[in-house]
Amino acid sequence: MRELKEHLGIKQTLCFYSARKTFAQFASELGIPDGVIDYCLGHSDKSKGIIRYYTKVKQKQAEIAINRVIDYVNNPEKYKDYIEMRADIMMMKG
Questions:
Q1: What average pLDDT does range 4-31 have in this prediction?
Q2: Dist CA 84 CA 17 (whole Å)
Q3: 3-state class of 46 per DSSP?
Q4: Fewer CB near the last or first residue (10 Å), C or N of the chain?
Q5: Residue 9 lies in a domain
Q6: Would you call 79 exposed, middle or buried from its count of C-beta atoms within 10 A (0-12, 13-18, 19+)?
Q7: Distance between alpha carbon 17 and the CA centroid of its chain, in Å?
Q8: Range(s) of the domain holding residue 82
Q9: Helices (H), 1-94
Q10: Would residue 94 count as lying in a domain?
Q11: Could you give the CA distance from residue 57 to residue 59 in angstroms, rounded to a whole number?
């Protein structure tokens, strides 16, 4: 993490928790389902309710989610309209 922080020129403290939280936030903004985000973060699915007994996140879904977040970080303008539309739908804008 220290090398990554130096390479990116980040001045603030950087830790795995920061990276995980940022990934989860970006993935959520992109509309990636919570179950897929949980899977990517390695969370247990035991406490997520009955739907987990009927559905299973696949590795391919996680790969797509991770690649989409990477693309979002590298090309935020590409997702601007979608993020704004989703914020309107989710009633997160005034």
A1: 88
A2: 27
A3: coil
A4: C
A5: no
A6: middle
A7: 13
A8: 18-89
A9: 2-8, 16-29, 34-41, 51-54, 59-74, 76-89
A10: no
A11: 7
